[in-house]
Amino acid sequence: LEARLEAADLFKKVVEAIKDLVQHCNFDCNDSGIALQAMDNSHVALVSMMLTADTFTPFRCDRNIPLGIDLTSLTKVLRAAQSSDILTIKSEDAPDVVNLVFEGKDQDRISEYDLKLMDIDQEHLGIPDTEYAATASMPAADFKRICSDLLLISEAVSIECTKEGITFKAEGDIGNGSVTLRQHSDLENSDKNVDISLTEPVALSFSLKYLTGFCKATGLSNQVRLCLSNDVPLMVEYALANNSYLRFYLAPKIGD
Amino acid sequence: GGRQAGITNFYARS
What we know:
The structure holds two protein chains of two kinds.
Chain A (H helix, E strand, L loop, with lengths): L1 E4 L3 H10 L5 E7 L2 E7 L5 E8 L6 E2 L4 E6 H8 L7 E5 L6 E7 L6 E7 L17 E6 H12 L4 E7 L2 E8 L2 E8 L12 E4 L3 E6 H7 L8 E6 L5 E6 L5 E6 L2 E2 L2
Antiparallel strand pairs in A: 1-5, 1-7, 2-3, 2-6, 3-4, 4-18, 7-8, 8-9, 10-14, 10-16, 11-12, 11-15, 12-13, 16-17, 17-18
Helix pairs in contact in A: 1-2, 3-4
Chain B lengths: L2 E2 L10
């Protein structure tokens, strides 16, 4: 494997966004890119990351290799990379370590780290291609704000999506709160758009603890996409350049 | 707030 990123920033932010949800995971490398799928310890949420080969310049991976990595250790190593550094990830065929090289843009500093790998026997879940009943895209910062505000009211949020908009409702001991985002196209700045597409109305409840955790990915993308169908996990997607993505799946709370 | 479902209730191990 040899994968070179123009800016370490992307990889630093991806790892930062998932390290509190999952501790040890395999980065599955093959000729299509670097993928990761892992459940949190309580098996309520799932993270799925894809960094496509096109994300890297260049990308080379001759055979499939899983790189079992302790994300806490990886975070320590990535602290040594400045956001603008060129990052190269390298590994041999049957690796004991993954090699990370950080180069300053002006090429007068090269840092090189070897991170020990672990054998991780990871369960892999099959996520079927799903036609979601409702898809809502919104500014990632707005979603983060809504989740953190409602977490102060309750540990759960009900998300209701209709043609009129998407509503987040929390009911707590101190009272209730709700936030509605209506469909909205900002001609000046499409990052501010709220776009809803719906085949049938959806109403589901989710844990805000998990949702606020997913929002650690906010810096990766201007927009976040929520995909919902009744009685299936919510998908929260941060789309990245070159068809790469960071997706979180969260099982709903179900009625008594 | 209801009972928290598990992700493996929806997606099978592959």
